[in-house]
Amino acid sequence: MSRTLSEADSKAFLSEFNIPFATEVLVSTADEAVTAAIAVGLPVAVKLCGEQISHKTERGLVRLGLSDSNSVHEAATALFAAAQPEDCATGVLVAPMIGGARELIAGISVDEQFGPTVLIGIGGILAEAIADVAVRLLPIAEVDAMDMLDQLQTQSLLDEFRGEPAVDRIAVGKVLLALSQIAAEHPEVLSIDLNPLIISDGQPIAVDALVEVQS
Amino acid sequence: MNQIVTSSDQLDASFSALFEPRGILVAGASTHPGKFGFVSLHNVIASGYAGKIFATNLEGVEVLGIQTLPSLEELPQGAADLIFVCTPKAANLDLLRAAASKGVRAAFLTSAGYGEAGDQGRADEAELVELCQELGILLVGPNGQGVVSTPAKLCAQIVAPYPPEGGIGIASQSGNFVSSFMNWSCATGVGVSRAVSAGNAAATSVGDFLQMYSHDPATRAGLAYVEGVTDGRKFFDQMKAVAQKIPLVVIKGGATAGGAQAAASHTGSLANDDRTFDGACRQAGVTRAATVEEAFEAAATFATQPLPRGNKVVVMTTAGGWGVVTADAITRDHDLELIELPADLREAIDAYLPPRWSGSNPVDLAGGETRDTIPKVLELVASHPQVDAVIYLGIGIQSNQARMLSEGPFADEADVERIIAYHQRQDARFAQAAHDVSVATGKPILTATELAVAFGDNAGPATVRSTGRLCYSSADRAVTALGHMWRHSRYRILRDMPLIDGCPEAFLPAGNLLGGSVSSD
Lengths: 215, 521
What we know:
- The structure holds two protein chains of two kinds.
- By secondary structure, chain A is an alpha+beta fold.
- Chain A has helices at residues 7-15, 30-40, 69-82, 127-130, 142-151, 169-185; strands at residues 2-4, 25-27, 44-50, 62-66, 89-96, 102-111, 115-122, 133-137, 189-200, 203-206, 209-214.
- Chain A has two domains: 23-96, ATP-grasp fold, A domain (Dna Ligase, domain 1), CATH 3.30.1490.20; 102-214, D-amino Acid Aminotransferase, Chain A, domain 1.
- In chain A, the strands form two sheets. In chain A, strands 1, 6, 7, 8, 9, 10 and 11 form a seven-stranded antiparallel β-sheet that branches.
- The model of chain A has no long low-confidence stretch (mean pLDDT 92).
- Chain B is α/β, with parallel strands linked by helices.
- Chain B has helices spanning 8-19, 36-46, 92-101, 118-135, 175-188, 206-214, 232-245, 257-266, 274-284, 292-304, 320-332, 343-350, 373-383, 397-407, 414-441, 451-454, 459-466, 475-494; strands at residues 23-27, 52-56, 62-63, 66-67, 82-85, 106-109, 138-140, 146-149, 154-157, 165-172, 192-197, 221-226, 248-252, 287-289, 312-317, 337-338, 363-364, 389-393, 445-448.
- A seven-stranded mixed β-sheet of chain B has the order 9-8-11-10-12-13-14, with helices on both faces. A five-stranded parallel β-sheet of chain B has the order 2-1-5-6-7, with helices on both faces.
- Residues 1-6 and 513-521 of chain B have low confidence and may be disordered.
């Protein structure tokens, strides 16, 4: 049996291993959401946070690109109202909008025949169609992490791109090494999804994260 | 899959019993030329195996000039290390007990009806494995095709061919891939050390054989066909250990959804996530090939060329179009670099060619070559410190014309005879130069021409072959092989591992400290 940590708990856990996240605040009222939005910097995204929330996007529980206090207040109020008891909601997450034209995905999972593995790939809405990923068996060394990036077919996406600097490969490599370290130290972790890992100004920032653990 | 091989002593003893047996016993020899018991005994004799050959046959009749034994009781103690079993399944347990009591240490079973044949078959296979463990016999198969060992001139197989002697060690989950690889060996002249089909791999898997090869001085490169991997982690550990010692090329069946379905009905293999298998190969330093030709040629290249120390490639061609397409192929390989020709190299070449030569990479001689140009320019290019590898195109053109002249109506005219001999001599020199310059510089020089296939006796490709190297049938295939080589080199360089050349010592510069030694890890 396994359970999935809430987004906030997932991020708190992963932050201890230096997975890069934007500063986020978990709030319990719409007023607090406005204060938090000003603190992290507008525009922001607000999301309902809880262990059992599924179909977050389909149910409209993620509101993006809110650029003033009114819209933040309105969105947070709506999210609190939309929460169902079975969501086990713990609050609303307020996060700055991370700008970047490129998205990667990264994570770990357990392969039936090969055991724990780590993955990096091109993310975004076309990710599945592009299917450009590299997988390694855990644990990995730094040289493997860098080779994973070299293995991606869409190399032009990692170079300078639409006015943004080239992807900091070492920073992305550190994310993969951190995932490897987590798997080594926490065998109860079954999977981690960093999706998307947005490349903002060349730096990777995990915007959504889910950790699945053995229960 | 149980692993019988546990300690290195036991590994050595099992290895010798299978690949260097003092004597072999073919159980179930037959007088019927269509039966396994005839064909395998025939192949053992025909390959020139020098050890003692014994055979059993229930009636004790003479088969292929060998007086067979009606039972194992008549087998002299300790005379045979290997038993090659062509008997029906029901006889095998008693047969193996008797064989073990006579000192047999390894058994190759062609018999079918085991793990591939339902619940009863699986139970019988488990019993077989248990018995062999108890008897201390290395069990290979069942349901396998055979074993080949050229240092022992041994071809114990139920099919052809018997390949030339060389450095490639083959292990396969499917017998027909052993045949395919060995047919390519026969076609190209790049030889094989050992080859074995694992059959059902009841006790000894492809990974186990590859581990044996990595300790085998006769094997310089491994070549494997794998269909399904049950214990992926163990397979990975084995592959990684092997690739530390010898270059290893793997072709994986069932890499796509369609192939995986075919594999399920062929060997009952579970589908593997191909992205995971692919990553595991890169992580282990294993070369993965997509096709049988690509796999064989990668292994053949490892076994006959020194590893490149970098990725900088120069193409030397006697004609423009080939060079252009080869430049495309090198550029498409993200890991190889078609370098800009260094100025000092360009100037050095200028001295040997009229001004119409390309002046850049590819070095297109543009027909400006005279008698000694090609060996000289090859030497200049390969010995330049900024060049790591050379692809040489255009050999054999004149000898191809010589063939047409020699088959034509004017072949007897003295001038024609003279030019035929000259062309053939020149192409032989050029091919020899490619080999000699590679040996002198320690850099790979890959010679490619479709004449290797069209007219294999053309003096160009024939001489490449006589130097022991592979003559690639196209520049693209040479580039593919070189890319695989460089990725293996890079794997080792990035991990501070010594570059261990797969080619024989005679292919390396004298006093080369890094290359040549399989054991120096």
